[in-house]
Amino acid sequence: MALPGARARAWGWTAAARAAQRRRRMEGAGGSPSPEPGGPRAALYVHWPYCEKRCSYCNFNKYIPQGLEEAAMQKCLVTEAQTLLRLSGVQRVESVFFGGGTPSLASPHTVAAVLDAVAQTAHLPADSEVTLEANPTSAPASRLAEFGAAGVNRLSIGLQSLDDTELRLLGRTHSASDALRTLAEARCLFPGRVSVDLMLGLPAQQVGPWLGQLQELLHHCDDHLSLYQLSLERGTTLFAQVQQGALPAPDPELAAEMYERGRAVLREAGFRQYEVSNFARNGALSTHNWTYWQCGQYLGIGPGAHGRFMPQGAGGHTREARIQTLEPDNWMKEVMRFGHGTRKRVPLGRLELLEEVLALGLRTDVGITHQHWEQFEPQLTLWDMFGANKEVQELLERGLLQLDHRGLRCSWKGLAVLDSLLLTLLPQLQEAWQQRAPSPVPGG
Amino acid sequence: MLTFVGRGWGCARALAPRATGASILVVPGSRPALTFGAARESWATDRLYSAADLKEKLDMSRFPVENIRNFSIIAHVDHGKSTLADRLLELTGTIDKTKNNKQVLDKLQVERERGITVKAQTASLFHNYEGKQYLLNLIDTPGHVDFSYEVSRSLSACQGVLLVVDANEGIQAQTVANFFLAFEAQLSVIPVINKIDLKNADPERVENQIEKVFDIPSDECIKISAKLGTNVESVLQAVIERIPPPKVHRKNPLRALVFDSTFDHYRGVVANVALFDGVVSKGDKIVSAHTQKTYEVNEVGVLNPNEQPTHKLYAGQVGYLIAGMKDVTEAQIGDTLHLHKQPVEPLPGFKSAKPMVFAGIYPVDQSEYNNLKSAIEKLTLNDSSVTIHRDSSLALGAGWRLGFLGLLHMEVFNQRLEQEYNASVILTTPTVPYKAVLSSSKLIKEYREKEITIINPAQFPDKSKVTEYLEPVVLGTIITPDEYTGKIMMLCQARRAVQKNMMFIDQNRVMLKYLFPLNEIVVDFYDSLKSLSSGYARDKAHSIGKAMCERLKDCLPRQLFEIAIQASIGSKIIARETVKAYRKNVLAKCYGGDITRKMKLLKKQAEGKKKLRKIGNIEVPKDTFIKVLKTQSSK
Predict the structure, then answer these.
(1) pLDDT band for position B608 (cuts 50, 70, 90)
(2) A 368-407 residues with CB < 8 A to B
(3) What is the CATH number assigned to the segment(s) A38-290?
């Protein structure tokens, strides 16, 4: 995983040079190189599927553990990490992200064991970003310190709200003061490397009070913040409550207003909105997540984890989208039998990969640079793809999109409506792709 | 009241009319309801009647010409035409008095609902007066001047009319139109002032109006209450005494006027005929003067009001005739029938009905195309005045462009499609035909004539290739309380109308006559006019406009920019809705585990977007038009 701010570079640079790049990371914007598709580097996602309690809004793959045998879980995570690293031929792991579920409920030993396995199977540079998602109540300072000792160097705290009523509505187990205390402790342990999540657009939530929360959070937070608009997901308690009329449906107009005002407040406070929902100052971007948006390779281990990589270790030449078995018990059985619990492998065609490059790249502030695009599509430039299209032209004229010497990216205004922009861009990409000449081998 | 009695063509810009006696009749302020027609009745063929003595085949020879009277009742809507007809039928024993004959004679659902006669019906009444047996033929006319050509044909089978006027309301616009139709046909006009039993009845005022407007001495008016039966006897007496018998000759070769026709699935066309000369009987070979086709007569008879076969029909009599005609276009209204090898001078005034209002008609669902096609075909079997051209629209798919005699005709047709054939259709905004005098020789060659008629706006030739455009014009009559005169004159001017006449018909009522371009009044003139006096149409337009805007708002997906939806009358905006722009439309979280789902969703949405039609900058789902128009037409 290369970092924003580094220069585009061919494969084969030295570890020292890259470490130097990393130290200078985030200085200045733009010109972010991307990992070569299929290059033997990857990010690693580790899914911890357990929670103390179900949150009312969450539809992730998570379980309330009953007689969890953590030792077995740990062993399986280690095994799967080793198997997939070998399969992928990945030689360097650039970042590790423990997500969930509530990975802060896992034992620090488990985290350490996975990191050790990674470091033994591939190279895990000492300064690789290792993030752990932490829930305020499950993470007392002592435990956070243990995670630090296990190799975690970045925390993402699911704070969600500074209003206790809202926290109850969300089914969170913590209070606002719990959250602020955890945040303070985390900042002592991981200075400059703590992120907090704040939700917006909750039922009955008003713009003014929400902005108050954001202002208060600015007094306490570190250099990274994520703003997430609540999306009501089928199958959650919140969804049912809104359906039944027990709660008012979230007002999308208000949510849009909060987002708009929140972005502006954070910009004032010196944060760079480097992605739709992510804000960082002092260069504290999440390099792990950046890999996703730059279409870098990533391995996913643990129940239901997703990965996208080329199985070079097994002689593969096509990137695959992979999903691990969802239910922890089944997943564990499979890992014990086959070494991994991959349930689904879908090869990604060149066009599909380009679609992802487009859809994900535009989520970032730098968008898709010409260099970045060239790594995935050496023949057709962004100009070729989009320069002549009338509808794209209209988006450019409306000031929603920018296409210039740097590349293609959303404007401030356009970023908020990216999904609508993509409905124009994706079909255009498909069309240009189909009309490209000379046509390579069908299906290639 | 807005009605067309005749049409002409005028220069589209300079309004140089070649108009005949057309008439628009408008009466704001007098009555808030928007009414189209005058008649409420038509005689149903399946009603009970008490003509027990007519079971045997009638010998019509026992009615000599001098004992025959052919007449119509003409009236403004709701002035009591149907009730008077009921009473006349009862008095003469044609229908049973003990039956409740109040508004029971309408045959079609649409006629009952709208209070109009779509298909003219005829009844022969047998009446004994001063020791003589009279044959009184009551020839009903279609109730609205959309059907004015048919009205005039019906009238041409008569020698006199009963002009019914409400004692409360006085002369209304359609009274005027009907009077002049009868007057032009040189018929005896018997004014009948009805509803004298009402509390506010003012028969004297109405008498004065009749004298002033129609120049008929007030003592000739018969004052009745058809509802109570008061003085109805004297109406029959006047019919016999004041209306002359037809001037016809039984000895001459057959000359019969077709004044209406209906289609019977088992027997083919049933033609309603009035005999001007000669005799016709079963087995005769007859010829249509218009088509020159020959038929053999299978059945003749009188309408009583059911079909009552007779041996023969004689000159001066009115009845029906079945002769193996397969299609109503073979029995066109106004056509003359004569005996084979005995050609006669056709009766004057025959012309094919010319559609003056055109509209696209489309199935709501294209899979319904064939069903609708068959429904339209069946319906036009009974209404030869509707013209059909295939048409197609990007938004609405395959359909037809139909020509109608007028707006009401169009609405009635649509309503009959829905009621009788259960067809669900979309009607587009009506347009009028234009004529273009071509200057381009290439185009003249192509069209094979210099003057072409354009019925579809899409086919309008470019003005560089045209010497002049002609548009249909109509003469309109407006009767209004005088306080609205100024406003109405301004409205008429705004509609490019030219004033032809203006007179006070009494102390506070004014009659205005204007020549209007048909296109200016075909869509919303009624509403505009009503709004001047009662505010009714304005409110109605507002509510319709608002409802349309709201529907459109619900149908249109949000877009990247704000969409203003406005309803307007002319340049005046009466309703507005806004489809707000998307402010935020981006998935908040998109990490490793979200990508597959996200891409799938985006592609699905992109596919959905391909199904949208782009109109200007706005993406519109294909069914939007159908949703919006459909709801409108069902209103």
Answers:
(1) confident
(2) 394-395, 398, 400
(3) 3.80.30.20
Instruction: Give which of A61, A142, A71, A67 is closest to A102, Cα–Cα.
Output: A61
Task: Look up residue B324 and give its two tokens.
Answer: 């193996």
Is the pLDDT at B458 greater than 50? The verdict is yes
Most confident of B4-18, B103-117, B466-480: B466-480
Beta bridge partners of B58: B310
Residues A342-357 have pLDDT tens digits of 999 999 999 999 999 9
Query: With bands split at pLDDT 50, 70 and 90, how would you rate the model's confidence at B479?
Result: confident
Mean pLDDT of B109-136: 74
Q: Which residues of A touch B557 (CB under 8 A)?
A: none
Any long-range contacts for B261-267 (C-beta under 8 Å, 24+ apart)?
B261/B325, B261/B328, B261/B331, B261/B332, B261/B333, B261/B384, B262/B119, B262/B328, B262/B382, B263/B327, B263/B328, B263/B381, B263/B382, B264/B322, B267/B298, B267/B299, B267/B322
Confidence of residue B24 (pLDDT cuts 50, 70, 90): very low
Q: How far is CA B632 from CA A51, B110, B363, B538, in A?
A: 55, 18, 15, 17
Q: B494: part of which helix (H) or strand (E)?
A: helix B485-494
Residue B354 has pLDDT above 80, yes or no: no
Tally the residues of chain B. 635
Q: Which residues of B touch A417 (CB under 8 A)?
A: 560, 582-586
Sign of the Cα torsion B391, B394, B398, B403 reads negative
- The better pLDDT of the pair B540, B234 is held by B234
3-state secondary structure of B285: strand
Amino acid letter, B460: F
pLDDT value of residue B632? 41
ipTM: 0.88
Which of the four pLDDT bands, split at 50, 70 and 90, describes residue A140?
Answer: confident
Residue of A nearest to B592 (CA): A292
pTM for this predicted structure = 0.55
Nearest chain B residue to A345 by CA distance is B596
For chain B, give the mean pLDDT: 78
How does strand B68-75 pair with strand B160-166?
A: parallel
Phi/psi at A204 (5° precision): 70, 0
Q: How far apart are the first and last CA of chain A?
A: 26
Q: Comparing B577 with B203, which gets the higher pLDDT?
A: B203
Alpha helices, DSSP H only, in B165-229? Answer: 173-184, 203-214
Identify the band that residue A38 occupies on the pLDDT scale cut at 50, 70 and 90.
very low
Name residues whose C-beta falls within 8 Å of residue A438's C-beta, 6 or more positions apart in sequence.
Answer: none
A423 Cβ under 8 Å from any chain B Cβ: yes
Distance from CA of B564 to the nearest CA of A (A): 18
Upper half-sphere CA count for residue B35 (Cβ side, 13 Å): 24
**What's the CA gap between B69 and B134, in Å, rounded?**
8
> Mutation test of the interface with chain B: which of A417, A421, A430, choosing the one with the most B Cβ atoms within 10 A?
A417
The count of other CB atoms within 10 Å of the CB of residue B451 is 14
- Domain borders along chain A are 38-290, 366-435
Give mean pLDDT, residues B354-367: 82
Contacts of A355 in chain B (CB under 8 A): 599, 603
Which amino acid is it at B60?
Answer: M
How many beta carbons lie within 10 A of that of residue B191, not counting itself? 26
The letter for the amino acid at B64 is P
Residue A219 pairs in a beta bridge with: none
pLDDT at A159 over 90: yes
A248: preceding bond cis by omega (within 30 degrees) = no
Token pair for residue A272?
């760079």
Report CA-CA distances (Å) from B343 to A65, B274, B320: 105, 17, 21
Regarding predicted confidence, which is higher, B570 or B196? B196
